[in-house]
Amino acid sequence: MQIRGIFASLCVASLGAGLIYAAPAGQIQVQVNLVNLFATVRDNHKAIVTALRQDDFHVYEDGQRQEISNFSTDSNLPITLGLLIDTSVSETYMLSAEKDAASRFLSRLLRDRDLAMVITFDVDVDLLADFTDDRSVLDRAISRAEIAPSGGRLVAQGPFQIGGNGGTDFYDAIYLAAHDKLSSEAGRKAIVVLTDAEDTGSKLKLQDAIEAAQRSDTVVHVLLISADGGDEHVAKKLTEETGGRMIVVRSERNLEEAFDQLSEELRYQYSLGYAPSNKARNGSYRKIRVETVDRGYSVLTRRGYYGPSD
Prior knowledge:
The chain contains six helices and 19 strands. The chain is an alpha+beta fold. Strand 2 and strand 3 (19-21) form a beta hairpin. The protein is globular and about 55 Å long.
């Protein structure tokens, strides 16, 4: 796989476990590792819970209770979003409705300081709009999404060059969105994918896509759109391992309802931060569990992160 992309050099870099400040030569280097979590809480009626306090949460890393040092309930925290649209032949019957609903979703969701990009994938992965806050640019990009010819395009047309196999590059699309684009962004990050989750052409594996999302602190949500069910196992694993949701869509009405649910969840999130008690710098994967004092509530957040390494 060949990826094209140029990123500016930054003096502050996100490393999954937090931030490392690289001081100029001759000065003392200060290292602060902070794990940031964004959590959505629902009650047993599936309604969003918005009035919890810091003391209502317990956070565990590899089974060890952690001390929450940062807490916020600000629903206006900026978000950086990747909208990925499956344009393989299997999505022909719903693509028009997907495009209309996706445009309305971005219009409702995005606020000042938010950014979004639009990517399509079939036998290759195309970036139709890079990160922007311009709704008209995003709408035009969504409108350009088209079903790939049945014979397939064997030469990549977008900025990502993937030696296409003539199938649907679902895993490659997730990997590239997370690794090549979102990894250099800060703050809340999410990918929303409209797909049947059936991959028939990627060079990479599902675990590669999951790990790329985890390393870039990106939550992946999947709207599973398929007349015959799609691959629920893949969609469920991808979303659960990254802290997102899978929503099954069977009709245009279901599609609107699914986007409404995601819009609500992405806006009403709690921000929790902690300095991990595990100070090892070995790059290992660490499991996270977040609970509320009220056990009748369910918490949606990422399941872990890759620790810092030297």
